[in-house]
Design a protein that fits this description.
Blueprint lengths: L2 H29 L3 E7 L2 H15 L2 E6 L2 H11 L7 E4 L3 H8 L8 H4 L14 E12 L25 E3 L4 H14 L1 H14 L1 E2 L3 H9 L5 E5 H11 L5 E3 L10 E8 L6 H11 L2 H8 L5 E2 L23 H4 L3 H9 L4
Helix pairs in contact: 2-11, 3-4, 6-7, 6-13
């Protein structure tokens, strides 16, 4: 056989081997299971519970990156098209509202949005409400009697509440409540309320500490979300503290949501949308509520019996869209020296 024919044969064999290798590589990539990256700004145990349940049901692995909701939203904005995030899950709506305004979120599938009440999600469909909660007054009956309990949140900022009322000025939920007071009662009333809280109230660094301070008799009452009381009750059993719900439609009973969204730059849009749909399914909601005493958005799922039934609540008719980023509330808090 001539050298020329041997060389040609070798080239043909080499090309065939290369083509086969490329084919095998492409096939392997196509068959590789998808891994989703979840940026979790919710409580760590809650994010892990729903991710594990989804992975068990679908076989799709979920890798979690934990951080604050605002921090993770800023990270996605900085990463842009390079972001590894497929889904972002936050304890509060404003980080999602911010990402939506920057055009960084994909629209949630209509089939998913249609399964829950529209008031729990973004009006333009770019993020999905996952669970809801309400603001309450947690109080210690040894320090605050029932006849002292106010109908309106504005009434806890006077001198009669000196040393009795606690709040968490750094909390996103308190910021949202401030925005609700502005929307319902006006800026002047909100300023007077914040000024009174600053003068007569006690500030705490987080809601868990504030809730425990009420239970331990360090302070008479605190403005918190209802699930902080429920979590403490599950931890300790019998509690001395109780919950007080404000009058129907009052800003003291503001309802807000945690939410999730698909990141627009995700390379796994189908699977990410599948994860969102799972989060509001009966199975997904139960996984979430196993670690969080909030209200389910899926009407087929029962809330924790320790909570007042949601259909008995009359929160103000203010949506997360109307609260927005609460920049006016933040400005007002800064003006009175709370932030």
């Amino acid at each position: 056989m001539s050298a020329h024919r041997v060389t040609g044969l070798a080239r043909a064999i080499g090309a065939g081997v290369l083509s086969f290798a490329l084919f095998c590589s492409a096939t392997a990539r196509a068959d590789d299971p998808v891994t989703l990256t979840l940026y979790n700004g919710q409580h760590e145990a809650t994010g892990k519970a729903v991710a594990d349940a989804f992975q068990k049901k679908t076989g799709i692995k979920v890798v979690i990156r934990k951080g604050g909701g605002g921090q993770l939203a800023n990270q996605i904005a900085e990463e842009g098209e390079r972001s590894p995030a497929d889904v972002i899950y936050t304890e509060e709506a404003p980080p999602l509202i911010k990402l939506a305004s920057q055009g960084l979120l994909a629209k949630v599938d209509d089939s998913t949005l249609s399964q829950i009440d529209a008031k729990f999600s973004d009006s333009s469909g770019q993020w999905l409400g996952i669970t809801s909660r309400v603001r309450v007054l947690a109080y210690n009956p040894d320090l605050v009697s029932e006849d002292e309990l106010p109908s309106h949140v504005l009434d806890v900022a006077g001198p009669e509440w000196a040393g009795k009322i606690a709040f968490v000025p750094s909390s996103g939920e308190f910021l949202g409540q401030t925005a609700a007071v502005i929307r319902i009662n006006g800026r002047e009333a909100a300023e007077e309320w914040l000024t009174g809280l600053k003068a007569f109230g006690g500030t705490y660094t987080n809601n868990v500490i504030a809730m425990k301070a009420v239970e331990n008799g360090e302070v008479g009452a605190a403005l918190v979300n209802s699930y902080y009381w429920t979590a403490l009750k599950k931890e300790k059993g019998e509690l001395k503290s109780k919950l007080h719900y404000f009058a129907d439609g009052d800003a003291g009973g503001l309802s807000s949501v945690s939410g999730a969204a698909v990141v627009k730059s995700s390379k796994h849009q189908k699977e990410a949308q599948q994860f969102l749909a799972f989060m509001i399914s009966e199975e997904g909601q139960k996984a979430i509520l196993s670690k969080s005493a909030e209200y389910p958005v899926n009407p087929k799922v029962q809330a924790d019996p320790l909570l007042k039934p949601y259909d008995q609540l009359k929160p103000p008719a203010i949506t997360a869209d109307e609260i927005g980023l609460a920049e006016d509330a933040l400005d007002l808090q800064r003006e009175v020296g709370l932030n």
